[in-house]
Protein: Kinase-like domain-containing protein
Amino acid sequence: MNLLKRLNRLRPTTAYSRSASGTATVSPRIFPTTGFTTVPASTKLEEENWAWYTPQSFYPVSIGDVLHSKYQVLFKLGYGTTATIWQCRDLQRNEYVCMKSMVSNYPSVQREIKAYDVLSKVSKTSRSPGKRFVRQALDHFEMRHGERDYHFLIHEPLGASLQFFIEISKVGLPIDYVKDLASQMLHTLAYIHSAGVIHADLQANNILLHIQDKIVLKEGEEAEMEHPSARKFIGEGQGQSVVFETREHPGPLRRWIGEKSGPVLCDFGEARTGKESYTELIQPAAYRAPEIWDFLLGQNLFPRTWALDTHTADKNQLARMVALLGPPPSSFLDVGPRALDFFNQDGSPKGEVQNPSETLESLLASSLERTKKMMTAEESAAFLSFLRRALTWTPEGRVSAEELLWDPWIASRAECW
Structure:
């Protein structure tokens, strides 16, 4: 008997029951315990590659587990610096959900939980159009394992990230799509800012798209039954842990992307809430604004790709900002406790710039040529004006997300979605 037939025998028929409250529930499925590829112990798999990783970093989630008495784990969707992501089924509602299993004892965990709590309260009364572009936390629970506590968030299942399409295209996204996206994300930012939440990590990896045809979720579940995910076993006995391999998105791309695939802003691990003043870094270095340039042209405006160490990379990145935007005002440097680490006494940057004569105008022209995109002289000027309104050194001169919604570069597209 071949493996496929053996696994088919393991599939139970879907069984329904009713809870005491009358809600229809689904019996958990029995997933295969054989037939998978075992990753060698010498190979680091996915989250193991983080320098800080230990087997205790994450709760030991396994495929087939039922967590919090209602969420059965179906397969792994991915991983990040602070979480592993899992496709699950809510057995009480018989619905697919996405579960975020968060690393233990990490500052971003509490930041994200607090941000979702604030947004959940505001969403009950808000009529902001940006609300529909923000991912909601459907549930939050905590579990203890060993001597550690672990937090979990439950979300609506979503599809591919914008970064996925930027990497495929290698030249960024279509101009009209970016204008629509800019309008949607500005509405989103206006909404969360009104709630006192600053996202601080707006980037293509954190904007996911709604799934066009949710049959792909069922296909993923069945694929796990027929071809169990590869995994690595660490340790032995009761202390053994398992690292699972992410399952690729099943089905053709057209089932994932279509008219229903609107953008959703996710991942509030870097978010700051309330009215406190912050002096520490609150945005990953590689994604310091602006994101719109990345979406449109497929490259960072202020890259960090040619330095031997982090401090030099910071100096060079700031030097490039000065080269393209002009120098910051002296008052800006006076209030910075580390200003002289990056700027000389006369306000000139200490870092190096690969092309000192480059301007925003010349960079846009060369980037459009590289990506084979067309902008008229008027539209190029309008786009750079839009950028400069957002890219100012001092917050006093910076327009708000709500004000940018009326900027001429995107206002003409604002009603298209």
Q: What stands out?
A: Residues 51 and 81 are 10 Å apart (CA to CA). The first strand starts at residue 16 and ends at 18.
